[in-house]
Amino acid sequence: MVVQCGTPMIGNSVRIEMANIASQLVLCDIKISAGINMAFGKRLTLSPNDASSKYSPTGAVDGNTINTNIHKCSGMYANDRNNKWMDVDLQQRLDINLVLLTLYQEAGFLATDFTIAVSNGGTFKTIYDNATDSRPMPGIFLSSKGQHLRIQQMNGSSHFTVCEIQVFARSMQDRLTGVCTSGCVNRWTGKDGMCNKNCSISMWGEECEHPCGQCSNGAPCNVSNGHCKTCAAGY
Predict the structure, then answer these.
(1) Rg for the chain, CA atoms, rounded
(2) Helix (H) / strand (E) containing 175
(3) Which of 66, 136, 160, 183 is deepest in the core (most CB within 10 A)?
């Protein structure tokens, strides 16, 4: 069973509860997804960039959140006194709502005095300042639009090391094409995710072209596949 939220929801716990107290609740697996990490595998730019360093040039966008191996992280040494930054090109303009940073485990590495900024190819706009913002790390809930996400260190005398950058966002492409990327609500359907057809309780399909079978108690069938929860007696 897949339960898809019609609108983004923020929380730290999920309860699954049976409606009938006389029945059993037995689950073999539960998966909860915050969406797709839009930073995975994208181009990462470091400044200053030292090709001979022990850091990985792609470690912060390789999907590995282990923070105990510095060779799997991206970063720059503290001996360069200039402010350092790393920029992830998300390759499309996105509605960014959550940034997760996995920092290197040892003390003396990036933990304070940094900012997060976004850009659409021009000037960067700061959307998070670790020195003044009360939002906790490593999960930062944001509401910003941009293609480039930059993490900039404000203290040039410290190491700048990030093991993984995860950016959870909603593509703005659906606003241009009309496609509902999160699926349709209620009995709305349509070809190619357009959600422009509202099926009656007796019909199903992309164009509401198929009649439902005999569902028990006259219940509607599933608008996507025509399935009944249970069949009427004899069917």
Answers:
(1) 24
(2) helix 173-177
(3) 160
CA distances to 3, 72, 127, 137, 222 from 110, rounded to whole Å, are 38, 15, 18, 12, 50
Q: Based on the number of CB atoms within 10 Å of its own CB, is 171 exposed (0-12), middle (13-18) or buried (19 or more)? A: middle
Phi-psi region of 92 (alpha: psi -120 to 50; beta: other; left: phi over 0): beta
Residue type, 170: R
Residues facing residue 144 across a β-bridge: 96
Q: Give the per-residue pLDDT at 39.
A: 92
pTM of the model: 0.60
Mean per-residue pLDDT, 177-186? 69
91: Cβ contacts below 8 Å, ≥ 6 apart: 42, 43, 147
Tell me the CA distances in angstroms from 64 to 142, 150, 170, one per residue in order: 23, 19, 22
**pLDDT in the model for residue 90:** 92
